[in-house]
Structure to design on (1423 residues):
């Protein structure tokens, strides 16, 4: 009896999967059923080539997280993306500009301002020299300032992109640009694209996990981990390092694990009877999803529990158990990746250093924020490395834009603290692991860090490079929507070969 | 062998008659060679293999296949690629069959298949006849398929079943697939199905009871009528429309602050309940403000296009986000109302359809002259005066019409209702010692100057404006044409006490349009950084009329009373008057900063033309949109209704009926329904729905079989009723109804039912999710407060959308997170507790109680096996709770009940019932 049940179940899932994939496949080829010859069915969508740019991912709506191969074997299997929401100042962290120090306090040359728009700078601002001390680090001699003492030790592990630019200078649109490839709302996020493309290795956990710290969500809200036009199953699932790790994961008050198990079993048993009546394969999918929900209830709290980690690991990351912190999230990121989660996205809020308060200044506030992340992000790299996970895990650190070499003069006034305005033209991102070269600094800005002079890369180039590491040709990684194949990189993007 | 047969005359005769019969049959079936069909055979080859290089975007070699004229034009080689009637002289044929891969097309791709080449050859031979894609051809009346069979003599199998027109179309296709309709579903199933479809939740008890007890042949029709007439109808269909309208209670982007626009949601519910004809429904929403003497309701309808996101983030360019909103209006109109992909023509010609880049901006020109400019206050706003003030306004306007002109009366009415036409202070530029504070309002400091370009002053003698003095003393001057030009205004700024205020000032404005310079002087200010005066908006006008009338003082006082009152308001559309009209330009490659040639309003050529008698503005566009001749409007809407009822549209891609969209499963049925809708049903949504749910197609059973699954896995041929998971809204509403918790309260501001802590965390936003009290916790999903950057989490999990942009279609998913919601979300646990209470009314027997719960949910008697499973669950839970009173207490909380362990155990069963596939699914 038990055996035959399993057979019906498995058969249903399999046949539905087969049909679904076939249907989706047909749909994405833009053809009717009748028009398809068997040879085409068995071969690729467009035989021999890709004239339309359509290259659908063949996912099964009933098992949408099933792992799938990318276009070519990628060096990275998973991604940890550390996004510092608010835009940290590259001029105090990575982009060392001794000449800017000499210009400190002088009025900005008008020629620099011509045709530029700033979020808050009005009229003619003054230049602001670096507010941190810099040193060259390791074999590579990469410049990292003293406010990142732990990370400075790892300079040889990473590739720096020092001339990244975007075309948005407000947080929400720029975060959308960085994470979805469009400054407007409505496109899928990078993590959604990746889970859509690759599925996930762990079916007890969401494939795309988002962790936030700093007390606020990123400025663009949950749209930065939204699935846009992709099926909603690919949207990021926000997990929390304090409280319930996933919404509604905890058994309600007064229902313990045994009763929960018993009730899921009963629900599924009734559903199997319903399946016998209706023979609708969707019922079998629901049974599978309820089973998975139970497994998630069991395994997610385990993964999300950092208390059981050894003391030296907790110390290494500098975790703060029971609180929401970047350190906790960094450790969770490692744990999740270890369990086969495809994409872990961290947002840390509070990097918007305009100089309107001590916390929001590039000397005091920035150093404090750096202290919050320095130890834990360095620990993350070392921990991944010691577990042999770094080679297949791409770690990306960055933000939505950078900050100006000028001191902010909001409303034309001198501010009480030292701050910098939003700057879209040049900022720094670093990547590490997942097949990224070690100890490379690519790109250079002018002597004051205002404009790129070499190795200028765009947001789309960064995205193309991330996809490339995962095994995707970004130009062929598409989803059909509104009558055309959409891609993360729109009509742009080039893989940054210098760092891969 | 052969000869032996021929020798046999009987065989010969038989063969002849067989041949004759075959010929007849062949004729009947239509085996004679038909000409190649452009839309279904040729265009798909173009779209798939050719058009990305030779289409609306790229025209490699000067060759494009967008339309026949372009295709036949000589290309860069000097020769045309196609010579109609002569495949052998056509370069296209030579190139697609070329042996040299360097020459062969498609370039650097696999060659066309032999069949494709043959199709193209035959098509050219037949004259290369072009065809318009079906969706762009105006809807024509369609012949309903006959259910008479072979030679029209014998009734076809199942012809009894095919009663309605819908059934006849469905049956014809079904039989081609070798399928047969399913039997009619039982009454209980139909009750639940029709209720969920028409009112989005289980039917109220009175309607359900009346139907189940009625054994007359009209019982079902009466049920449908009762559901269509119930007020919950409007709530259910408003939910659908709010996805199209991207309705939200917040503005979007970084701060995502609240927006008061729920009056629009209430308008929707009322309009749908009244069964407002769909064409009027569209006209009011697109251009209600442009109708003669628009009513409040007509203004409210236009909030449809004020549901665009706006950005309050500091430093944003207001014009950029104004343009973004206009672009969104165009895209929403096309995707949501016309089922056409249009957004791509923002940057270049349409890659697949014959729509030009410029045509996008011609449509945009219709939407480019509304008065909204991404202001912080979201002007223009419709002011909702309390009744007493509305009465004042009415009599004021009547009086003005008498002492002055009806035109002046209308002007004053519009101004008091919408504060329009006004110039916003964010329109200023060339700031000296002045700036847009946080990019929201103009603030001037000591010796500040700001310019307002090309203001139509037209000899105005009064300036009404909203100002906020910051510092004692100071003069505000306005000069025309230059900082030292003629003085228009010289005003001693009043004391800062009292904050923002509206003042009326005497001015001497020149005629026509002028650049105006604001100058602020205040020698009293020592600090250069100190703010002197703030501005919000300006309204140039003439003195209040009727100076000599005895009632002047009274009405002038009323005018100021109304103007200074602060009634609640809703963002609406108000068109710019002629002197404030913007010019619309093509944006080169879609970049709003690079303006190309100027364009006039107009619609894409392939979609017909605007009636030359209609006004050349948004209203004219709305009339075109809502006319029966528009090829897309009715088809799109009927397709949407069908999708709501059957889970999938007749064209699966609701958002795209163009040549790249899905092929319709029943094109003739779609056209027939669209024709009926526009020509026979007077655009009545309720009539169209009744027509669909009255069909036998709709009333079939949902059971399927492996054979059926194999022949039609996605039920595209409707040989059974499709089982569809409930929508996010239906899941909640059903739980509220089954538990008896649902509040019947309609309308009003968005409510905040239980939501876990810490979900809202917008930077710089002070707004909090404050759980509603009392019945507001148990309202229908349509009233749940919708924050764009953080929508209600349990609804998002069930594929609800964030509503940042138009969502033409929700894609259903099936995930473990959905299970977690209905299992563990305290909202559903509370519902289970309440359902358990209702179950206990069935008596003391557990199986009766469980049967009652199941019956409440599904209107069916529970199957014995299922009952046994649930009883087993009950007993397990009961044992647990009896042994663990603390656990019982935790589950029941404050509730005081008899036999707590039994009640807790029943709650576990109720929770299971709310999670059953049958309950989560419509079948």
């Amino acid at each position: 009896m038990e055996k035959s049940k399993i057979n019906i179940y498995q058969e249903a899932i399999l046949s539905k999967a087969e049909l679904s994939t076939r249907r989706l496949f047909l749909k994405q080829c833009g053809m009717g059923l009748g028009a398809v010859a068997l040879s085409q069915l068995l071969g690729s969508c467009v035989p021999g080539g890709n004239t339309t740019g359509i290259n659908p991912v063949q996912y099964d709506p009933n098992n949408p997280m099933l792992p799938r191969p990318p276009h070519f074997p990628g060096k990275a299997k998973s991604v940890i993306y550390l996004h510092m929401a608010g835009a940290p100042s590259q001029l105090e962290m990575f982009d060392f500009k001794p000449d800017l120090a000499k210009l400190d306090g002088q009025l900005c040359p008008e020629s620099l301002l011509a045709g530029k728009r700033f979020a808050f700078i009005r009229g003619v601002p003054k230049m602001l020299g670096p507010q941190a001390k810099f040193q060259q680090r390791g074999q590579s001699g990469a410049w990292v300032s003293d406010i990142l003492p732990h990370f400075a030790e790892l300079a040889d592990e990473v590739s720096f992109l020092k001339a990244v630019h975007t075309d948005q200078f407000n947080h929400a649109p720029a975060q959308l640009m960085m994470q979805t490839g469009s400054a407007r709302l409505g496109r899928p996020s990078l993590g959604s694209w990746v889970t859509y493309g690759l599925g996930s290795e762990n079916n007890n956990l969401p494939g795309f996990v988002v962790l936030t710290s700093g007390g606020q969500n990123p400025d663009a809200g949950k749209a930065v981990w939204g699935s846009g036009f992709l099926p909603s199953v690919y949207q990021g699932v926000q997990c929390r390092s304090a409280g319930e790790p996933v919404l509604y994961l905890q058994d309600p008050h007064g229902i313990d694990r045994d009763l929960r198990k018993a009730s899921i079993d009963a629900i599924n048993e009734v559903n199997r009877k319903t399946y016998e009546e209706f023979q609708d394969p969707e019922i079998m999918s629901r049974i599978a999803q309820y089973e998975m929900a139970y497994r998630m209830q069991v395994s997610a709290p385990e993964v999300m529990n950092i208390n059981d980690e050894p003391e030296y690991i907790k110390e290494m990351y500098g975790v703060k158990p029971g609180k929401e912190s970047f350190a906790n999230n960094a450790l969770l990121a490692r744990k999740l990746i270890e369990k086969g989660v495809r994409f872990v996205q961290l947002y840390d809020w509070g990097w918007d250093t305009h100089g309107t308060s001590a916390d929001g200044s590039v000397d005091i506030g920035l150093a404090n924020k750096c202290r919050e992340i320095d130890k834990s992000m360095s620990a993350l790299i070392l921990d991944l490395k010691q577990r042999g996970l770094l080679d297949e895990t791409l770690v990306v650190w960055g933000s939505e834009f950078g900050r100006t070499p000028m001191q902010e003069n909001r409303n034309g006034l001198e501010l009480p603290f030292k701050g910098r305005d939003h700057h879209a033209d040049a900022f720094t991102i670093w990547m590490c692991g997942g097949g990224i070269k070690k100890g490379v600094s690519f790109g250079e800005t002018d002597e004051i860090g205002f404009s790129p002079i070499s190795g200028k890369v765009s947001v789309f180039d960064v995205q193309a490079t991330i996809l490339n590491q995962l095994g995707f040709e970004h130009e062929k990684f598409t989803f059909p929507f509104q009558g055309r194949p959409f891609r993360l990189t729109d009509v742009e993007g080039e893989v940054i070969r210098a760092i891969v | 062998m052969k000869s032996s047969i021929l020798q046999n005359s009987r065989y010969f005769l038989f063969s002849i008659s067989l041949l004759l019969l075959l010929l007849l049959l062949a004729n009947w079936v239509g085996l004679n060679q038909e000409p190649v069909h452009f839309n279904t055979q040729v265009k798909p080859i173009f779209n798939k293999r050719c058009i990305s290089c030779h289409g609306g975007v790229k025209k490699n070699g000067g060759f494009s296949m967008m339309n026949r004229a372009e295709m036949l034009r000589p290309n860069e080689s000097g020769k045309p690629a196609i010579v109609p009637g002569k495949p052998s002289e056509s370069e296209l044929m030579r190139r697609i069959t070329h042996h040299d891969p360097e020459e062969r097309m498609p370039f650097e791709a696999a060659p066309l298949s032999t069949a494709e080449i043959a199709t193209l050859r035959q098509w050219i031979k037949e004259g290369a006849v072009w065809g318009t894609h079906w969706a762009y051809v105006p809807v024509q009346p369609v012949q309903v398929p006959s259910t008479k069979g072979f030679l029209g003599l014998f009734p076809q199998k199942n012809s009894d079943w095919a009663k309605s027109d819908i059934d006849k179309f469905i049956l014809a296709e079904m039989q081609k697939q070798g399928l047969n309709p399913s039997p009619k579903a039982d009454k209980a199933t139909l009750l639940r199905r029709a209720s969920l479809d028409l009112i989005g939740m289980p039917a109220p008890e009175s309607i359900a009871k009346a139907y189940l007890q009625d054994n007359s042949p009209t019982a079902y029709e009466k049920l449908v009528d009762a559901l269509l007439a119930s007020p919950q109808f409007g709530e259910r269909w408003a939910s659908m429309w709010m996805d199209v309208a991207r309705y939200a209670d917040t503005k979007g982007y970084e701060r995502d602050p609240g927006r008061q626009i729920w009056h629009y949601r209430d308008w929707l519910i009322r309009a749908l309940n009244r069964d407002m004809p769909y064409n009027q429904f569209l006209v009011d929403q697109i251009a209600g403000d442009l109708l003669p003497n628009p009513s409040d309701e007509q203004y409210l309808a236009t909030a449809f296009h004020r549901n665009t996101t706006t950005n309050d983030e500091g430093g944003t360019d207001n014009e950029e986000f104004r343009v973004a909103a206009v672009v969104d209006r165009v895209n929403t109109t096309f995707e949501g109302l016309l089922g056409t992909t249009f957004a791509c023509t923002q940057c270049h010609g349409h890659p697949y359809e014959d729509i030009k880049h410029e045509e996008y901006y011609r449509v945009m020109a219709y939407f480019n002259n509304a008065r909204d400019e991404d202001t912080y206050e979201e002007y223009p706003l419709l002011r909702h005066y309390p009744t007493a003030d509305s009465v004042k306004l009415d009599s004021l306007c009547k009086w003005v019409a008498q002492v002055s002109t009806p035109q002046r009366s209308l002007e004053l009415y519009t101004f008091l209702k919408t504060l329009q036409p006004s110039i916003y202070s964010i329109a200023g530029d060339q700031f000296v010692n002045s700036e847009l504070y946080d990019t929201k309002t103009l603030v001037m400091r000591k010796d500040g100057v700001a310019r307002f370009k090309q203001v139509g002053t037209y000899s105005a003698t009064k300036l009404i404006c909203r100002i906020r003095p910051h510092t004692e003393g100071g003069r505000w001057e306005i000069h025309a044409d230059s900082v030292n030009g003629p003085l228009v205004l010289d005003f001693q700024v009043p004391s800062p006490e009292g904050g923002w205020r509206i003042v009326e000032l005497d001015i001497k404005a020149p005629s026509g349009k002028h650049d105006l310079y604001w100058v602020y002087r205040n020698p009293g200010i020592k600090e250069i950084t100190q703010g002197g005066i703030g501005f919000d908006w300006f309204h140039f006008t003439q003195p209040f009329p009727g100076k000599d009338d005895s009632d002047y003082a009274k009405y002038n006082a009323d005018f100021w009373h109304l103007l200074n009152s602060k009634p609640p308001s809703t963002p609406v559309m108000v068109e710019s008057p002629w002197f404030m009209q913007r010019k619309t330009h093509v944006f080169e490659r879609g970049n709003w900063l690079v303006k190309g040639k100027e364009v006039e309003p107009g619609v894409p050529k392939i979609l017909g033309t605007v009636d030359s008698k209609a006004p050349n503005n948004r209203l004219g566009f709305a009339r075109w949109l809502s006319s029966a001749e528009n090829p897309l409007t009715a088809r799109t809407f009927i397709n949407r209704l069908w999708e709501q009822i059957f889970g999938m549209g007749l064209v699966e891609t609701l958002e795209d009926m163009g040549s790249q969209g899905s092929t319709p499963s029943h094109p003739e049925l779609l056209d027939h329904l669209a024709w009926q809708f526009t020509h026979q049903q007077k655009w009545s949504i309720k009539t169209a729905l009744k027509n669909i749910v009255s069909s036998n197609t709709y009333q079939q059973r949902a059971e399927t079989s492996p054979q059926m699954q194999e022949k039609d896995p996605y039920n595209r041929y409707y040989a059974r009723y499709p089982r569809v998971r409930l929508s996010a809204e239906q899941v909640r509403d059903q739980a509220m109804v089954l538990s008896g918790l649902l509040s019947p309260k309609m309308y009003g501001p968005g409510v905040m039912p239980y939501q876990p802590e810490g979900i809202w965390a917008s930077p710089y936003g002070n707004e909090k999710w404050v759980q509603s009290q009392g019945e507001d916790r148990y309202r229908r999903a349509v009233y749940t407060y919708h924050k764009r950057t953080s929508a209600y989490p349990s609804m998002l999990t069930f594929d609800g959308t964030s509503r940042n942009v138009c969502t033409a279609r929700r894609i259903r998913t099936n995930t473990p997170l959905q299970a977690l919601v209905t299992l563990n979300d305290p909202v559903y646990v509370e519902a289970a507790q309440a359902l358990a209470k209702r179950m206990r009314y069935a008596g003391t027997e557990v199986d009766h109680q469980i049967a009652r719960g199941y019956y409440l949910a599904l209107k069916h008697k529970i199957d014995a096996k299922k009952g046994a499973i649930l009883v087993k669950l009950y007993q397990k839970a009961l044992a647990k709770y009896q042994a663990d009173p603390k656990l019982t207490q935790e589950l029941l909380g404050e509730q005081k009940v008899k036999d707590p362990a039994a009640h807790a155990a029943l709650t576990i069963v109720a929770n299971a019932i709310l999670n059953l596939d049958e309950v989560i699914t419509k079948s």
User: Anything to note?
Assistant: Chain B touches chain A through 114 residues (CB under 8 Å). Residues 28-32 of chain B have pLDDT under 50 and may be disordered. Chain B is about 40% helix and 10% strand.
